[in-house]
C-alpha cells in the first residue's frame, strides 16, 4: 500500500478546489424562478387546447385529469441543453366538487416538474402560461382532453440555417446605387497647335507655322472652352439611411443602444452565432456610417468553437475567437462573415462569452472596458470563469422581449459594468445590497444570496 500526498498550494489542488467550489456553488444556487412566483401568473382560457404539431420543436409531459403525477417523466431528459423559451401548463376548469383546489393541484404539478427538470426554474427568460380548458363539463369528457406541460424550445442552428443566415447577410450588406448626380461644367479643350518663328520681327507680325521645322520652333496649343455634361452614380450601403426599417430589422436594439451611449475607443466583443444574424446586420449597418466606425478600436468576434463537437469544448478553451481591425465597413463584414462560416451552426445553445472577454482584454491590455453584444437567450458555457474578468463589461443584450437572462446581470454587477436593453440602461447593479429590488422591463428582481431572483 502506498499513499500520495498533495500540497494544498500545488497547482493540482488549486484546480480541484476550484472545480469543487463550482460544483458546490451550482448545487446551492438559489432557484431563480420559484413555484410561488409562478403561481402568480394569470390564467387564460380556451375551449380545447390544441397540442403543437411535429413541425414545432416541443416536448409534451402528460398528466391525468385531476392528478398531479407526470406520466412520462423520462422525456424530461431530452430537455438537457435545449433553449426553452415557453412552457404551457394545461388543465381543465371543470371541477367534480366545488371544494376542489385547482391552484393547489397546479402547484404540486409544478413541484413535480421541478424534480425532473430543475433547470427550467433557473431561467428567467422562459414565458410561462397557465391555460384552462372550458370545453368539457363532466369527468368522462375531461379525461379525453390533454393535461400536462408543453415545453417549447428553439432548434439549434445547423449547416442549413447557417447558410440561410449567411445568404441573408450577403443579400443585404452590399453596395448599391443610391443617388445619381448630373452636372454641367466648363472644360478647357485643346483644339489645335501652331509654332512660333524664332525671329522676333516675324513674331511681331504674328507669323505662325504648322511645323516645328529645322529651327525647332516653340509649340503653342490652341484651346477652346466647352460645356460638358456628366453623370455620376453614388454607391453606398442604402439601409443605413433608414436603420429602423422593418424590411431589414425586427427590432432596433443595436441602433438605439449605441445612439444612447456614446462609447468611444470601443473594444467591441460580439457573438456571431446564427441566432444573432439580425443583430449582426444592424451592427454592420451601424459601422457603415464612417463616424460610427471611428468609435471602434477593435472588434472581437466569437462563434463558439469553430464547429467543434460540443464534447470537445473545454471551459475556457472553446475557441472560435477572432480579432478584426475596423479598417472599413466592408472589411469588417468580410472578416465577420468568415468567422460565421467557420462556426457552421454553433452546435448547442451556450456560448463562450467569458472566454472571448478574457481574450479581448489580453489582446488590448490598455483597454479600460469592453462592450459585449450578447444573445440574451444563450447562457455562458464558461460562466464560472467570470472571476477572472477584472475590468467593467457594458452588455448590449439582444432578444429581451420575454425577460432577462440573469447571468448577464451578474456579469455586469460583478465587473462593475452595466446592462443595456432596447429600452433601458442599468448601471448601478454593483451598488445593490442584499434584498434590494429593481425592474428590468416588466420583470422585478431581488438580490438574494448574491443571486438575482424573480419576485412580485
Q: Could you please describe the fold and organization of this structure?
A:
The chain is 26% helix and 27% strand. Residues 1-8 and 11-29 have low confidence and may be disordered. It has 456 residues and is α/β, with parallel strands linked by helices. The chain is elongated, with a radius of gyration of 33 Å. The chain has helices spanning 11-28, 35-38, 102-116, 139-142, 159-172, 200-204, 253-260, 277-287, 290-293, 329-343, 353-363, 406-415; strands at residues 43-46, 58-62, 83-92, 127-133, 148-154, 176-196, 218-236, 266-271, 296-302, 321-324, 370-375, 393-398, 418-420, 425-426, 437-440, 443-448, 451-455. α12 links the parallel β12 (393-398) and β13. A 7-stranded mixed beta sheet has the order 10-9-8-11-12-13-14, with helices on both faces. Strands 1-4-3-5-2 form a 5-stranded mixed beta sheet, with no helix packed on it. It has 3 domains: 29-154, 2-Layer Sandwich (60s Ribosomal Protein L30, Chain: A); 162-174 and 239-455, Rossmann fold; 177-235, no CATH class. α5 packs antiparallel against α10. The chain has 12 helices and 17 strands.
Strand content: 25-35%
Q: Radius of gyration from the CA trace?
A: 33 Å
Unreliable parts: 1-8, 11-29
What number of structural domains do the residues give?
Answer: 3
Helix percentage range: 25-40%
Order of helices and strands: HHEEEHEHEHEHEHEHHEEHHEEHEEEEE
- Characterize the biggest β-sheet: 7 strands, mixed
Output the CATH topology of the largest domain: Rossmann fold
Please, what is the average pLDDT? 88
Please state the overall shape, judged from the principal axes of the Cα atoms: elongated
Helix-strand makeup class: alpha/beta
Amino acid at each position: 500500500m502506498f499513499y500520495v500526498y498533495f500540497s494544498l498550494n500545488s497547482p493540482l489542488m488549486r484546480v480541484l478546489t476550484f472545480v469543487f467550489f463550482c460544483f458546490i456553488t451550482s448545487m446551492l444556487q438559489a432557484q431563480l424562478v420559484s413555484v410561488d412566483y409562478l403561481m402568480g401568473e394569470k390564467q387564460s382560457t380556451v375551449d380545447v387546447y390544441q397540442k403543437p404539431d411535429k413541425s414545432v420543436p416541443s416536448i409534451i409531459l402528460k398528466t391525468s385529469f385531476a392528478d398531479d403525477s407526470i406520466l412520462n417523466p423520462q422525456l424530461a431528459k431530452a430537455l438537457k441543453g435545449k433553449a426553452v423559451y415557453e412552457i404551457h401548463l394545461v388543465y381543465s376548469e371543470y371541477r367534480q366538487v366545488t371544494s376542489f383546489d385547482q391552484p393547489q393541484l397546479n402547484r404540486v404539478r409544478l413541484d413535480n416538474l421541478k424534480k425532473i427538470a430543475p433547470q427550467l426554474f433557473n431561467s428567467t427568460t422562459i414565458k410561462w402560461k397557465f391555460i384552462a380548458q372550458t370545453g368539457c363539463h363532466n369527468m368522462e369528457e375531461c379525461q379525453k382532453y390533454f393535461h400536462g406541460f408543453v415545453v417549447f424550445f428553439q432548434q439549434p442552428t445547423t449547416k442549413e440555417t447557417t447558410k440561410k443566415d449567411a445568404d441573408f447577410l450577403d443579400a443585404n450588406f452590399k453596395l448599391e446605387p443610391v443617388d445619381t448626380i448630373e452636372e454641367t461644367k466648363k472644360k478647357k479643350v485643346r483644339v489645335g497647335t501652331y509654332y512660333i518663328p524664332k525671329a522676333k520681327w516675324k513674331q511681331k507680325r504674328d507669323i505662325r507655322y504648322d511645323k516645328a521645322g529645322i529651327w525647332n520652333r516653340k509649340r503653342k496649343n490652341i484651346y477652346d472652352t466647352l460645356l460638358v455634361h456628366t453623370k455620376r452614380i453614388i454607391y453606398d450601403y442604402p439601409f443605413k439611411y433608414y436603420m429602423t426599417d422593418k424590411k431589414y430589422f425586427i427590432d432596433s436594439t443595436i441602433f438605439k443602444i449605441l445612439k444612447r451611449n456614446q462609447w468611444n475607443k470601443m473594444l467591441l466583443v460580439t457573438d456571431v452565432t446564427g441566432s444573432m444574424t439580425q443583430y449582426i446586420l444592424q451592427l454592420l449597418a451601424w459601422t457603415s456610417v464612417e463616424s460610427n466606425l471611428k468609435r471602434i478600436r477593435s472588434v472581437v468576434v466569437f462563434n463558439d468553437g469553430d464547429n467543434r463537437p460540443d464534447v470537445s469544448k473545454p471551459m475556457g478553451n472553446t475557441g472560435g475567437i477572432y480579432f478584426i481591425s475596423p479598417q472599413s465597413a466592408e472589411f469588417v463584414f468580410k472578416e465577420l462573415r468568415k468567422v460565421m462560416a467557420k462556426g457552421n451552426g454553433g452546435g448547442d445553445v451556450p456560448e463562450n462569452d467569458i472566454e472571448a472577454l478574457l481574450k479581448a482584454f489580453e489582446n488590448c491590455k490598455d483597454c479600460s472596458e469592453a462592450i459585449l453584444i450578447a444573445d440574451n437567450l444563450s447562457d455562458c458555457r464558461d460562466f464560472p470563469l467570470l472571476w477572472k474578468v477584472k475590468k467593467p463589461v457594458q452588455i448590449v443584450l439582444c432578444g429581451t422581449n420575454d425577460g432577462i437572462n440573469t447571468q448577464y446581470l451578474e456579469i455586469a454587477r460583478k465587473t462593475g459594468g452595466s446592462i443595456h436593453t432596447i429600452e433601458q440602461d442599468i448601471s448601478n447593479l454593483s451598488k445593490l445590497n442584499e434584498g434590494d429590488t429593481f425592474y428590468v422591463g416588466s420583470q422585478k428582481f431581488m438580490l438574494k444570496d448574491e443571486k438575482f431572483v424573480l419576485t412580485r
